[in-house]
Amino acid sequence: MAEQEEQPITQPDPPGSGQSRTGRAVSIARLLHRECTRLLQLYKEKETFLSDHTPDGGRIVSLSSESEASSAEEQVQCLHSALRQCLGLLHCVILKEEEEWGKLEGDYETMRKNVRTRLEHLLHTTKDLVETEEMILEVTPDHQCNEEVDGAGGLFGLKMWTYRVLLELIHWSDHAAQTLHVLHREREGTEEI
Amino acid sequence: MHTSARALSLSSRPLDFLACSVFLPSSWNPRLLVSPPPLCTPLVCPDSACSAVPATAQPPVLTSPVPASSPDSPLDNRLSSVCLSGCLAWCCCSGEDHHFRICRLSLSQLIIMPRLAVSPSSKPNCSLIGLICIFLTLSATHTHARIAVTIPEQVSLLASMNTQQLSISWLGGEATTFDLIILRTEFNETVFYGTVSVTVNQESGRHEWNWTSAEPLECTSLSVRIRSRDGQMTSDWSDTQILQGSDVPSNKDTQIYPQDRIVPVGSNTTFCCIVAEREVFGSIQYRSTVMSATRLSRRTYAATVVNQGPSRASGTNVLCFTDRSSSLSGAVVFVGYPPQLSDFVCETHDLTSTVCQWNNGRDTSLYGKRRTRYLVNNRDCTNNSLLQQQTECSVPQWEENWTLVAVNSLGQYSLTDSAELSHRVCPVAPVELSSVVHAWNATVQWQWKYSSYSSLALVCQVEFTAGGYKTKRTFTGVGLRSAVLSDLHPVEDYSVQVRCGAQQNFWKWGTWSKPISFKTKTDVPDAPDVWMWRNRDGTGQVIWKPLTQRQSHGQITGYSVTFWNPEENRQHTVILSQYTIAVPFNLTQMAYLSGDNKVIASVTAKNADGMSPPASVSLRLPDVELPAASRAVYTDEGFPLSWQSNANATCSFVVEWHETSCTYDCPVDWIKVPAGNTNVSIESANFQPGVRYSFSLYSCPSDSPELLQRWQGYTEELVPSGSVRLSSSQQGSDILLTWRSMPMVDSRGFLLGYNVYISNGSQLTLLANLSDLETSYTVKGFSMGSYKFTVKAYTSAGEETGTTVIIAMESYSDWLILEILTSLGILSLLLVIATFICYKKRKWVKKAFYPDIPEPKLPSDWSSAQGPLDVKPSPHSMVHIVEKPEWDSSKEMLVVIPEEDEDDDGQGIGDEPVDTDEPTSLRYYNQVVDERPIRPRFPDSSTSSASSLDSAHTDVTYTGIQTSGSSLVFQLDPQGSSEGHQPQAAHSVSCRGGGYQPQMQPRAPSDDMGLASAEPLLEAQAACSGGYKPQSSWHFDSPMEAEERGSLAPSLGSPTSIASTQFLLPDGEEHGEEKRQSSSAATWFTNLLSSTKP
């Protein structure tokens, strides 16, 4: 089990503080990625049947093909949108799990809460980075959580769907770290964070 | 799951009448069986007939797995035959599979034909006549049935997937008994076949019957057919109704059933997996356990889990695996318990509303949506919190009777309670606590949340915590809002909290309030605990114990010690810092203060609030002899000390203790014992094992202390740490081991004795155990060699390592010689000293004991007539010295003694001592009339010889002088000074001449050597003796005689003089007796002094 880096969850730093905003965003995205990985690990410890299972099927959240050739800022804007979708999915997971299993206070539930807060933090950070007067970015999720989970239905389907959401979080947090790093490189002219 | 079935065999019937055997499913209810018709006609089923009837896969042909027949099946469970009268049937009989077939005949009459259970021996033989009879009978019966039994119509199926219950309804006319058969459509496997009695539902006008499936109804399609029965008559089967399963080709994906089922702990659940099209079934797993699966249809497999245990919050997973690794289907099952509550009580806090509480008991293992829901008096009390199980519910008013119902998916549980409001008052926690604080007390005040409490009689507990200790005090009052806490300690931090209950009809204590804290005020300190230590020289220390925080009542700023004389009212005060705990004193220097009276030291402590009361101790102890210390034995509770006390004693006691080895300014500890106590147990964290402590009991410590009793003891005795100082010494053949007593510090216990060992190589052999603490030991009887001894002191804990000494034993004969030599040396030294003294005092001695001998008085001048005395000694005459103890005055004459041999002479005097001539001389003196001292006859030197001759006399008695040859023979041996010859010379003077030859000069021409040695002697004699030369000039007359005498010369050569004057001219007899008395002592001194005469 990899040792997790403990970092306090704070609100976005005001402009002009030591680390660059893009660098800070990259750090947050990388930390989010580690926490999402840890969250999936904890979930697999609960649902052991998932340990050797790789679900088929595509992404739950995907970008439109138009964004592939866009600028770094536009890619971050798309990333922001995808992360917002992920936050909606995570909210839905938390809601459904608490409804079905009750409010528990284990390691998984604690990390799940951390990921949600970290993801919200990253959304605020990316919003600050790429929001323009023309492009107003929202942070709150628009996922209504009223749609059925994966086709099989039932609570086993909820577990499989949760698994896919967690994989989605890992994917998009990793994607966020890379995309934000590109933006950081373009804006700061350095690889260093 | 397989459905087991019973084999119904008719083998007991005559073979000719056997129609067929029918295998019924086990679910068949025997009570619903139709009795065999009394006129049942045997049906003969030729084998050849089977091939004539084509088997169909449609409902008329139903199959079911048939296990082996059961021989124990009761006869009434057997459907002996389904013989339809009036029907000529030909039956299909096969012994190869386990199915029976319902053969549709041309007359639409149903005959159930066995295919298996007919034994070979029961192979039917068709009889033409019988067949005809049967045909006629069946035809008649069938005609009758068609009139009375109608076929069920409008069969309808209603499935409840959750309960796995199939509700079957139909229109059955007047019939009340029906045969039902349910088969798995795809495999034509019968899961139910039986006759049931069903009444018509008055509302719907339909017959309804419910059937519960062992498997989920989704697993596979089921076919249902019904027929009416009236006794032995049945109608035709209804049309088949099919309950569609989820394994129909339209549902291509993998599915597993049941989903999200909630079952009780310990139950059995059958799960089925419908494999996706074109996939191969792998396995069914419950948690991580692979289950044994049974195929229900082309795509459906089922497995049953038995005795399920409780699941976790997110349920238990059931998985279905196929050959596609990416395909994972599953279901979740929740296994839990129905609610089981206890301790349901309702009470009021505000005197208006109701709060009901209960205990949930065991965990139901059902959470979230499946959690238990609660109703109190039919009001839903379920909270919206999903965090934990609920245990409380509020009702806005008091109802006095309450019913709690707890419900979950597995069941419900209800409890009731009833009470009056006044009996169920549980006050809320007091709020807004405050305090008014003093040094020794404080007042705590609080408020109530509800104004209704103002008229409520309350009992309240105030709990205050100080120094880790909690104390509760109870107060009562109507609408109580304050309490005074007394007996607090100054400068102490207190934490106080309050709770209350109804004073009347007390129900329970309310909730504790939030605590408040305060610190009490300061006050003057307590008096210190004072004692003193006194040394033997009159010095000592006044000691007191530092005041604890609880005793100081504030920061101590200092101490003052006052020495004072209560009788003369004189005092001396010393001011000390707050860190001082002792002050020295010297009573000898305080004489101005005390004289010989007692001195009292009073110690007071001071803080910001003032001085403490004084604590006094008397410094002067009466000079009495210390009482003997008894031993104190340490126990788990310390040193238990006890003493006898005077019943009238009013003084308290002090028990002090210190290390016994300490004697000056010792760090002493003490404890004060109240008056009247006669025992105390002393325990201290400073006690160390192996250290001896002295305990002293004093009475009246503050006024006139008196030492009453002493103890000594160890908390734990140890092996001595030191060793004795051992030394050894040889005492002849013995070895003396000595050692010094061990210091008390090293003994580390009460010494019980010493063990003395001798070492033999590496082994110690115990020689002695000295339990009386002797410090020496003598080991006896050792020969020469080296020996090693070890002495070990021991206590009750054991013996120390010991001290070893090695001693090499020396030969003790040397010591004996040395002692002898030493004795001789000492004796010689004494002789020398005596000789020296005598020599120095010789004149006095001589004068006192040996006065000069007066010169003989001669009547004529012997010198002129000097010449050879021509007397020829006779060899046969002799002058013999006669022993005569008594003086015989009548024999004043020389007696001639017959000549005797020398040997005889020698023997004659053999009784005399050989090493001295003195007795003989004394005896001679008894015969000598002359009282003059005797002089030695054989001087040691020529000079002394001359002198001797001069003064010597011969103390012989001439018993007779024979002129004819008697002579006196002198020994001429130059060795004549030898003592060895003296006795012989003195006693054996033999004169063979027979005549008088007193001063014979042994001149023999043939013996020059003898003469040469004799001449000087004779000359000296002549010079000293004057006119007595004729005696010294005589010689042998003839060579023969000379020769004869020559042989005697060595023994006769002693220069003996004869006091011839005295002898010849005795003075008279009046002095004879007196002279004889002193002659014996005088002789010794004479000899002594003559040798020392200069």
Automatic annotation (TrEMBL), chain A:
What PANTHER family does the record tag this protein with? CILIARY NEUROTROPHIC FACTOR (PTHR15196)
UniProt xrefs under InterPro entries: 4_helix_cytokine-like_core (IPR009079), Ciliary_neurotrophic_fac_CNTF (IPR000151)
Which Gene Ontology terms cover its molecular function? ciliary neurotrophic factor receptor binding
| Signal peptide bounds | none
Q: Which organism is it from?
A: Acanthochromis polyacanthus (spiny chromis)
Question: What protein am I looking at?
Answer: Ciliary neurotrophic factor-like
* Entries under Pfam families matching the protein: CNTF (PF01110)
Q: Which GO terms describe its biological process?
A: ciliary neurotrophic factor-mediated signaling pathway; negative regulation of neuron apoptotic process
Start and end residues of each stretch annotated as Disordered = 1-24
